[in-house]
Structures are given as structure tokens and as C-alpha cells.
Amino acid sequence: MSQNSLPDRLAIDPDSPFHDEALLAKGIGIRFNGAEKTNVEEYCVSEGWIKVAAGTARDRKGKPILLKLKGTVEPFLKGDEA
After folding, report:
1. Judging by beta carbons within 10 Å of its beta carbon (0-12, 13-18, 19+), is residue 77 exposed, middle or buried?
2. Positive or negative CA dihedral for 16, 67, 50, 8?
3. pTM
4. Which residues pair with 43 in a beta bridge?
5. Cα(82)–Cα(77) distance, rounded to whole angstroms?
6. For the residues of 26-58, what is the DSSP string, one character each?
7. 79: confidence class by pLDDT, cuts 50, 70, 90
8. Tens digit of pLDDT for each residue in 55-78?
9. Domain limits at 68?
10. What average pLDDT score do residues 3-25 get?
């Protein structure tokens, strides 16, 4: 599976409409501005952003508070790394 077959947007939160459990089980990696990130909660390639947890801060529903970072987003399958 290539980068072209990965969705434009994906989230690890099961309540999100962009959540895909089967795809996440395969292992997705994210390169953000050329550096691999391991703490990405959600990404969008076409809009050029990732969301990462803001430390240990939680909202009133117990979910992590997310920061949106803008830049170049490159998702890849972990098994397809070169």
C-alpha cells in the first residue's frame, strides 16, 4: 500500500468521523516537516496540519487537549519504510 492509498485525513479518536480502526491497526507513521512524529492524534494532508496532545491537559470529557501544527504532512505505512 502506498502513500496515495492512505486517507487525506485520519484520527485515532474512536468518536471521530475520520477514525479507521482497520487502517490504524496496520501501523501508520507521520513525517511532519521532514521529521517522523510519534505523538500525532489526527492529521490532514490537503490542509497541511497535524494535531498533537498538549502535555497531560484534558478537557471535561477526559480527552487530551490538542494543538494544531501547520506544515508538510506525509503519512506512510510503518511496514513500507525505506
Report:
1. middle
2. positive
3. 0.86
4. 10, 50
5. 11
6. H-EEEEETTEEES-EEEEETTTTEEEEEEEEEE
7. confident
8. 999 999 999 999 999 999 999 998
9. 3-80
10. 91
Q: The C-alpha cell of 71 is what?
A: 506544515
Burial label for 55, CB within 10 Å (0-12, 13-18, 19+), is exposed
Q: Three-class SS of residue 73?
A: strand
Torsion of CA 4, 9, 12, 13, to 10 degrees: -160
Residue 64: exposure state from Cβ atoms within 10 A (0-12, 13-18, ≥19): middle
For 43-58, the pLDDT digits (tens) are 999 999 999 999 999 9
**Which triple of cell numbers denotes residue 56?**
497531560
Report the number of distinct structural domains present in the chain: 1
Distance CA 29, CA 34 (A): 12
Amino acid at 50: I
